[in-house]
UniProtKB/TrEMBL annotation:
InterPro entries in the record: DUF2093
Taxonomic lineage from the root: Bacteria, Pseudomonadati, Pseudomonadota, Alphaproteobacteria, Maricaulales
Pfam families on file: DUF2093
UniProt-recorded name of the protein: DUF2093 domain-containing protein
Amino acid sequence: MIRAILNRAVLIPSPTHYVEAMNMFFQKQGKAQLHYGSSDFTILEGGSYVTCAVTGEKIPLEELRYWNDERQEAYKDAGAALKGFQRAGVA
């Protein structure tokens, strides 16, 4: 869709464009590179999983719920997160 604003044409991508780009990004197989924030994460390198810092197990991105933003570590579940915090002397 093209919309004219102040005599300039601005290309506005359709929502379908975003969906296609996201699908291509998430369909990449292999380990993803993430930057963990305090309440969310940013995908730096596409992939389908990250590795748990405690157990070494693969965590599919859609199941990732636990991480530590200070140590940039992902955890498989609440138990692994607790062990990670205990190992760091936080809990």
